[in-house]
Amino acid sequence: MLPRLLTPKWVLLHLLVVALFVATLFLGYWQLSKAEDGGGAVNWSYALQWPLYGIMGVWFYLKMMRLEINRDPDEDEPGNAVVLYQRPRIDTTGDPEMQAYNAYLAELNERALRGRSDDRAR
């Protein structure tokens, strides 16, 4: 579990989150000093908002790390998702015009599938 969070990508993310958290604390302190020097209500509000932004960012990051730890490591493997294709059924009961239309749609579908398989073979 823990080695997943020590890959180069995650280590860079850890460092970035720490740097941004320290920056938000610094910006909050800077706004507080501006507010104490006679700044208005905007400086007081930013003095509270910047640390809250940092705490919120760390909270989201911890949540993201928890999701990574609990994630199945094999879910990223190719071929893991099974996609089944079911050919459309042709309605053989009822209106003859509807039967002809459904047969026409099935023929178009077959042509499209053959076109796709030809494109993949190239």
From TrEMBL:
Keyword annotations of the record: Hydrolase, Membrane, Metalloprotease, Protease, Transmembrane, Transmembrane helix
A biological process term (GO) from this entry: proteolysis
GO MF annotation terms: metallopeptidase activity
Transmembrane regions listed in the UniProt entry: 12-32, 44-62
Name of this chain's protein: Metalloprotease
Organism: Goekera deserti
